[in-house]
C-alpha cells in the first residue's frame, strides 16, 4: 500500500528475514513481487558513503545516517539520479542547517 518505492523499502527494512520469508510464502502475487524487489535492492543504493558526506561537511554522528537515509530514499524514488545530484543535496542540507 506504500505510495513510493522508498516507503515500500522502509516498511520492509524493519522486517526480520523470517518475516520476509513468511510474507513471500503466504502472500499473493503482488506481495511476493514486492518482497522479491526488496531482496534484489543493492544495500548501497546511494553513490556517496558516510565518509563522503562527512568530507562534504556533515558532522559525524546521527546526522550522517540521516543524510544517507535521505539519499537512499531519493535514489529509490528517482529524484536523485547521479553522484553529482547527491553531492548537491548534501550541500543544500548543510546550508539549511540539517
Can you put this structure into words, describing what you see?
This protein has 98 residues and is mainly alpha-helical.
Unreliable residue stretches? none
Structural class: mainly alpha
Query: What is the string of SSEs from the N terminus onward?
Result: HHHHHH
Please summarize the sheet with the most strands: none
Entry summary:
With 98 residues, the chain is mainly α.
List keywords for this structure.
98 residues; mainly alpha; 67% helix
Write the layout of secondary structure elements.
Blueprint: H1 5-13, H2 17-26, H3 29-40, H4 50-55, H5 62-77, H6 83-95
Helix pairs in contact: 2-3
Amino acid at each position: 500500500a506504500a505510495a513510493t518505492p522508498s516507503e515500500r523499502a522502509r516498511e520492509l527494512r524493519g522486517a526480520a528475514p523470517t518475516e520476509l520469508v513468511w510474507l513471500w510464502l503466504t502472500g499473493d502475487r503482488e506481495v511476493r513481487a514486492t518482497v522479491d524487489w526488496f531482496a534484489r535492492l543493492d544495500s548501497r543504493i546511494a553513490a556517496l558513503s558516510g565518509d563522503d558526506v562527512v568530507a562534504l561537511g556533515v558532522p559525524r554522528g546521527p546526522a550522517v545516517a540521516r543524510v544517507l537515509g535521505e539519499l537512499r530514499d531519493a535514489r529509490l524514488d528517482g529524484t536523485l539520479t547521479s553522484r553529482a545530484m547527491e553531492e548537491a543535496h548534501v550541500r543544500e542540507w548543510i546550508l539549511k542547517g540539517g
